[in-house]
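User: Design a sequence. Structure:
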């Protein structure tokens, strides 16, 4: 894999940016009272074995895809014009409900001074939102890949609209995080999962890796963040993004299911193996499907701790202490469990989990939640897109 150093964007330029906001050099941004170096930026070049498919049959044969494409055209929004960017953002105030992350109950956080707590709040929010930003760029690239790889005309049309959606998401999160002042590096597990997806040898794997696994997780995360945030600007942004993401996940659910029906059993097993590896990579990074195990190391998160004056070893010791005392982060009422409620039932329903791969999930101690009752109660009959505001059973 080839890495090429990239000069920080904006270096040597003066005056406001294209939005009329003060321009900050990427090499040294300021959040609160803390200056953080972000000279981690590089360009990463991947090679993909994906085939490109022409399609000269222009008949649309999957009605839900026709409807998804129509909804996508109707619900385009402009990140520059349809968001009120004049609303203030104070990075020292809690942007997210910290109680759901457990951090406010850790002894190492409780021991911080008020100014350090403010800095931790700001930087933790920056780190989390940075992952959304990087993930949206990954989704932009996978959607573009699907546009040229999917075999059906209606699939190409929809994937093209998703590519535009993802470009808008990158734009809107980059602009919001600029108000907070720091963009942190992508978490290694997230980059690995997106890299594996981008380098897959079949478009169905790309749709599973991004539209069903990554965006299945993101759909629940966006819903929960919209409910938890105290920032009206972030709530508006997230609400708009959430409407797009529900269509993206529906595309994976509808289109992958149709394609797997016609696959040779050997090819279906190959896809199921890819789905297992993608879910396991994500599950391992998040401390297991229930989030109770050890999480994968994240250099960007450790960089965030150091920026606010917390020794990483002290933070990890405090996490272990909390775990030993039985302290667990609990999801507030009304929130979505992405693994249990959305992602796993969808994978089972489309046939991406086979009997053979079930044995692999069992060996890895990853539950195969297959009850799609809640997922189906959320889904729109016309498009298959999940409406997370709709009351659901369970």
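Assistant: Done.
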């Amino acid at each position: 894999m080839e890495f090429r150093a990239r000069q920080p964007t904006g270096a040597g330029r003066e005056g406001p940016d294209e939005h009329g906001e003060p321009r900050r050099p990427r090499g040294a941004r300021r959040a609160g009272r803390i200056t953080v170096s972000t000279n981690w930026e590089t360009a990463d070049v991947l090679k993909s074995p994906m085939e490109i498919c022409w399609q000269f049959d222009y008949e649309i044969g999957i009605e839900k895809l026709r409807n998804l494409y129509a909804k996508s055209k109707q619900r385009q929004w402009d990140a520059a014009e349809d968001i009120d960017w004049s609303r203030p953002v104070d990075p020292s105030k809690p942007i997210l409900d910290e109680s759901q992350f457990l951090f406010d109950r850790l002894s190492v956080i409780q021991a911080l001074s008020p100014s350090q707590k403010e800095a931790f709040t700001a930087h933790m929010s920056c780190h989390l939102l940075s992952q959304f930003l990087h993930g949206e760029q990954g989704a932009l690239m996978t959607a573009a890949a699907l546009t040229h790889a999917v075999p059906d005309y209606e699939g190409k049309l929809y994937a093209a609209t998703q590519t535009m959606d993802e470009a808008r998401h990158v734009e809107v999160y980059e602009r919001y995080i600029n108000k907070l002042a720091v963009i942190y590096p992508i978490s290694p597990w997230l980059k690995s999962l997106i890299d594996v997806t981008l380098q897959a040898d079949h478009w169905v794997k790309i749709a599973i890796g991004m539209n069903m696994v990554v965006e299945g997780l993101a759909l629940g995360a966006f819903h929960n963040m919209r409910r938890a945030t105290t920032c009206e600007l972030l709530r508006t942004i997230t609400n708009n993004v959430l409407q797009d993401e529900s269509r993206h996940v529906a595309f994976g659910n509808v289109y992958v299911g149709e394609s797997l029906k016609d696959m040779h059993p050997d090819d279906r097993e190959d896809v199921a193996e890819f789905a297992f590896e993608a879910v396991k990579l994500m599950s391992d990074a998040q401390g297991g499907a229930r989030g109770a195990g050890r999480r994968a190391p994240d250099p960007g998160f450790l960089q965030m701790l150091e920026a606010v004056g917390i020794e990483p070893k002290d933070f990890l010791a405090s996490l272990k202490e909390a775990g030993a005392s039985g302290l667990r982060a609990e999801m507030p009422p009304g929130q979505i469990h992405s693994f249990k409620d959305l992602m796993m039932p969808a994978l089972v329903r489309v046939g991406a989990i086979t009997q053979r791969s079930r044995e692999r999930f069992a060996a890895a101690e990853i539950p195969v939640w297959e009850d799609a009752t809640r997922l189906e109660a959320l889904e729109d009959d016309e498009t298959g897109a999940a409406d997370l505001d709709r009351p659901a059973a369970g």
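The first helix runs from residue 63 to 74. The chain has one domain: 100-378.
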